[in-house]
Amino acid sequence: MGTMARPVAFLLLLLLAACAAPRQAGVPTTWYPSPNFDERRPNLVVIHHTSDATREQALATLTDPAREVSAHYLVARDGTVYQLVDETKRAWHAGVSRWGADTDVNSSSIGIELDNDGAEPFADAQLASLLALLADLKARYHIPTANFVGHGDVAPGRKVDPSRWFPWRTLALAGFGLWCDPPLAPAAQPFDDATELQALGYDVSDLDAAIRAFNRHYLQLEDVPILSPGAEAMLACLVQKSRQPEPPAEPAPGR
After folding, report:
1. Boundaries of CATH 3.40.80.10 in the chain?
2. Which one from 113, 120, 196, 250 is the annotated catalytic residue?
3. pLDDT tens digit string along 105-153?
4. Is position 113 annotated as part of the catalytic site?
5. Would you call 142 helix, strand, or coil by DSSP?
6. DSSP 144-162
7. Domain 37-179 class?
């Protein structure tokens, strides 16, 4: 290509890119592409149960365009792991939800569905595959230990999955989520349920729902809208743990 042709070709490329590039509605823009970007890096993992009787039913639901629901992964009862959505893309699994200051959980999270009807214990093979998957995600994305939560945690009052059968303590002991084992020091009084739950990450706009979600996750209690002294002690310990600094992660390549 001749010397004069190169700048002309470059300008033509810019013009074509400007015509093809999406524009923000109502704002005139000129597309001038930069190579300095990368894909989203999820910072949260949300765990669900499917409520279906079989993996086939779950896969059909999660891939049905009319249902408009998906997840990045489905872990079957026998431990088979299905990937349904690219990790760098936004799956539709959390819906209207919140964790801490994050009000767009779908955009910041990896969604994992577990093949479980909600009224049964989770299979050993399934949990083994889940732990391996979580270890891989945590290592690659440097997801903070506290940021492994359930759908019921990010959408209290609207969702209850994974059920009280889910072994959160097992996950936490492996580094995925927070946990405190007894004996626990009594919570300092007076104890403000809303302030402490919010400090942990819960949306407390419906306080009873947030309390129910906390009791399901940490005490395996279903539909209990009050915090017992033991629950308050657990919550106070978890908030304290959440404030401890995370061990420094290795820098990503090229950073």
Report:
1. 37-179
2. 113
3. 999 999 999 999 999 999 999 999 999 999 999 999 999 999 999 999 9
4. yes
5. coil
6. -GGGEEEHHHHSTTT---S
7. alpha beta
